[in-house]
Amino acid sequence: MVDWTDDRIAELSDSGLKNLLANAERKSVDDLVARCQAELEKRNALKPRKVAKARTGLKDFEHEMSSQLATIGRQMAEKYDLSEETAKAKSAGVKGFRAHKLVGGDGQAKLGGLQRAGFVAVDRYISYRCGNDIVSLGVFLPKNQDMSEHKFFVIAPQAMLDGGQPVDAIRDNHGQKQSADSALMFDDLEAAAAAFDKVLARIAA
Question: For residue 117, what is the DSSP state?
Fold first, then answer.
């Protein structure tokens, strides 16, 4: 029988040590079990612990913007009937119609295609669709720009958006298809939300 001294136990690999522990437990060699467990605990204590990455200032900003947009979405849903069921009923006969969830599955603003593709630092939005018309409210921040350079936008069909301009004239969309043909840009969320409110009144009428 092998004399399992503390030094011999310490020389084992992790897998070898675990095998020895399993055999000792199977044979009820309590002293050896205790020493194997002590060595495993010592090794685990020496291993560097994974530390959760601290969220960067940009991620904090994105999260806060997503939360604020989602809050506006919930307020609008209380003011207008923006349910998927109503959107589907109003869109009967529209080929390929798919109702939009106003916010993302996590209750925050949705992740925009420009950010998903890596073109911008932040692209978050909420949206509603009825028939072929899609309206959205969001925020975007170009890459390598200070967070103070962010802008809010409302995108909607031109007939619904007073003073709207072509989306490409307002921001670089990197060739990505847009949900509607006109947009307005704002420096503050309150003004953008007011414009979005007006558009929703028209599309939800």
Answer: T
